[in-house]
Automatic annotation (TrEMBL):
Its main location: membrane. The keyword Membrane applies. It is a multi-pass membrane protein. Belongs to the alanine or glycine:cation symporter (AGCS) (TC 2.A.25) family. Keywords: Cell inner membrane, Cell membrane, Membrane, Symport, Transmembrane, Transmembrane helix, Transport. This is Sodium:alanine symporter family protein. It comes from Loktanella gaetbuli. The chain crosses the membrane at residues 12-34, 141-161, 173-195, 207-227, 233-259, 300-323, 343-365, 386-402, 414-437. It is found in: Cell inner membrane; Cell membrane. The keyword Transmembrane helix applies.
Amino acid sequence: MTLIVDFLNSILWGYVLVWGLLGVGVFFTIRLGFIQFRHFPEYFRVIIGSNNTSPSGISPLQALTISLASRVGTGNLAGVAVAIYLGGPGAIFWMWMVALVGMATAYAESTLAQLYKVRNADSQYRGGPAFYMANGVGSRAMGYAFSICLILSFGLIFSAVQSNSISESMTAAFGVPGIATGVGLAAVAGIVIFGGIRSIAKVAERIVPAMAGIYILVALYVLVVNITEVPAMFALIVKSAFGFEQAAGGFTGGIMAALMNGVKRGLFSNEAGMGSAPNIAATAVPDPHHPSSQGLVQGLGVFIDTLVICTATALMILLSGVVDYGPDGAQGMVLTQNALSAHIGAAGPAFIAIAILFFAFTSIIGNYSYAENAMEFLGLGGRMPLLILKVAAMAMVIWGAVQPVSTVFNFADASMAVMATINLVAIVILSGTVRALTIDYFKQRKAGKEPLFRFADHPNLDKGIDPTIWNRDVAAERE
């Protein structure tokens, strides 16, 4: 199994996704008129003061916090440390690049998820890549393949990745055995997961902003204390990305190591183009009521995840001076804990353990919500199939808590790569639809109107769209 996983990773990451992710991101950046730069304030406007819900869906703010719950986790703490250890400081630069172009990719995939969403048997909104593959591209086969990959990766494997990081940090900080951490985490996560997507939304809405805010405050303290060294760290990151500082700190991996590890860990962290966040984006009631507004919300999630939180982690690690690129050097969560210990003393490992406990816990419940969406597409949304998925997800949490970090990350990389490859093909095929929606949205904004999408006004976009969702009294649904 290890040989198969390693082969998949070498092909998909070495020849497909490293260039595919950047290429698709650049493609959408250009085709959408550099939307993430020209309309950057709009990414915030669609979320400020937006808390509308309806019996059919959750609010844009809840959709953002659930997607951040999934994004902000292991990738921001352990993933950044792994990127630096394997790719040197330059890997962070490529994480930034993935995020900058990824804001356009994330916008595109979540806009499509909104457009092609449906109502399930309980009148709840459901949607995501599988739905726009079936209804937009016209290929249910793509939708089935994507859904299976999503369930395997997010419903199962990524839960193991998150619990692995929690287990490592709890053992390092408090000496708690991995199995004890796994069982306890599975029990608490199970309580939330068995409550359904609305329960997940309520928990994420409270935990994610609070924990992210505290983490950023600690990072700001570290930056202020070391403010004179911060410019040099940014220069080191940029120079190392292009091989000008390959030997910095003993790292000798070169440009490709920085590029490969930056892209891999960047995607794992912000998930742009992977097709994960669109699953929750589709369940939101957009405000303004236009598919593009929810696309902008999820684009903002990429910015917060990588350009804010990952950068904070990277600077804390690099400023600490504790990175050892030798074979016995600390990596993953332990490296992040060692770095913060160098800045704030004995409280550092404990703080990181608590931070990853909350970040990774919310990732587990957020990831599960994506898998449940995929089960709906496969026609497995009944009580018994979902019960099996929930039990399996909890079992993976326990399994991940006692596995070596390399094993868990390799499995995660392989499943993520297959899933992302299928999604990237689909959104490129539907890029004309995304462009039409974008033009419509900003044309209305420029005219001083609140953007509103109505099915009847777009006869050229009628394929696979549920007209009852977009031709209705918007105000009535918000009551």
